[in-house]
Amino acid sequence: MALTSVRTEELTLQDIRNFKEDEEDFDWFAEHSKEIEKKYKGKYVAVANKELFVAESLENVEKAVKFKYPDRQPFIELGAVTLRY
Fold first, then answer.
1. Is residue 36 situated within a structural domain?
2. CA 57 to CA 9: how far, in whole Å?
3. Ramachandran region of residue 29, left (φ > 0), alpha (ψ -120 to 50) or beta?
């Protein structure tokens, strides 16, 4: 028997907007991933509002995104490993 997960709380309009923004950032990253990997291999890269941020550490790339977009949770990668989105 398969398990099913059900979300019981209702989504707000902000939840839906956040999901759409996250999806757009992921899609943007996917479109540009090969060129980003070539240029920034070994660095932390984040995408927020389809804008790329690059830093030497996870902490610094998060700070850069939060400085410009305090309400956004960025999509972050190091090399080909997804850390958070």
1. yes
2. 36
3. alpha
Domain that holds residue 69: 13-84
Cα distances from 48 to residues 6, 54, 60, in angstroms, run: 29, 11, 14
In-domain check, residue 52: yes
Do residues 48 and 75 touch, judged by C-beta distance below 8 A? yes
Domains contained in the chain, number: 1
pTM attached to this predicted model? 0.74
pLDDT (tens, 9 = 90+) of the chain, 85 residues, equals 566 666 677 888 988 888 899 899 999 999 998 899 888 888 999 999 999 999 999 899 999 999 999 988 887 877 544 445 4
